[in-house]
Amino acid sequence: MEGEQKWCVVTGGRGFAARHLVEMLIRSGRFSVRIADLGPSIKLEPSEEKGLLGEALQSGRAEYVSADLRYKAQVLKACQGAEVVFHMAAPDSSINNHQLHHSVNVQGKKCWLLRLNLTCF
């Protein structure tokens, strides 16, 4: 439908690099942005509340969903209706846990691709 807003998802959307991507996507006006991250709810810094992200969340141009990319139901909920997924999620690099990093970065990404019938190129 012409004029209908297209949705994208940013996994790990509250991480350092992903925050900048989220703002860039909102600013572009091309997509509404679904921010997917582990926290049960989004916690904004005071500057974010009064800025572009806060306005987008209030107007419905952005929304937050709590999601762990290793779980199918959460993946499907986060991606429902989205045309594009920007995969930015990764455990904090200061956590020295090989099993966690492999689970999220390798197995988690594989699960996303398989569950969403996507190909990686």
Folded structure, characterized:
- With 121 residues, the protein is an alpha/beta fold.
- The protein has one domain (6-115): Rossmann fold (3-Layer(aba) Sandwich), CATH 3.40.50.
- The protein is 43% helix and 20% strand.
- It is built from 5 helices and 4 strands.
- It has helices at 16-28, 46-50, 52-59, 72-79, 98-115; strands spanning 6-11, 31-37, 62-66, 82-87.
- Strands 3-2-1-4 form a 4-stranded parallel beta sheet, sandwiched between helices.
- It is globular, with a radius of gyration of 14 Å.
- It starts with 5 loop residues before the first strand and ends in a 6-residue tail after the last helix.
- GO terms for molecular function: oxidoreductase activity, acting on the CH-OH group of donors, NAD or NADP as acceptor.
- Residues 9-110 form the 3-beta hydroxysteroid dehydrogenase/isomerase domain.
Q: Main sheet: which strands, in order across? A: 3-2-1-4
Helical amount among residues, as a percent range? 40-55%
Count of separate structural domains: 1
The radius of gyration over CA amounts to 14 Å
Q: Report strand %.
A: 15-25%
Number of distinct helices: 5
CATH superfamily: NAD(P)-binding Rossmann-like Domain
Enumerate the spans where pLDDT stays under 50 for 5 or more consecutive residues.
Answer: none
Oligomer: single chain
Number of strands: 4
Say what the CATH topology is. Rossmann fold
How far is it from the N-terminal to the C-terminal residue, by CA? 28 Å
Name the overall outline: globular
Q: Can you give the mean pLDDT?
A: 84
What is the CATH C-level name?
Answer: Alpha Beta
GO biological process, one term: steroid biosynthetic process
Keywords: NADP, Oxidoreductase
Pfam families: 3Beta_HSD (PF01073)
GO molecular function: oxidoreductase activity, acting on the CH-OH group of donors, NAD or NADP as acceptor
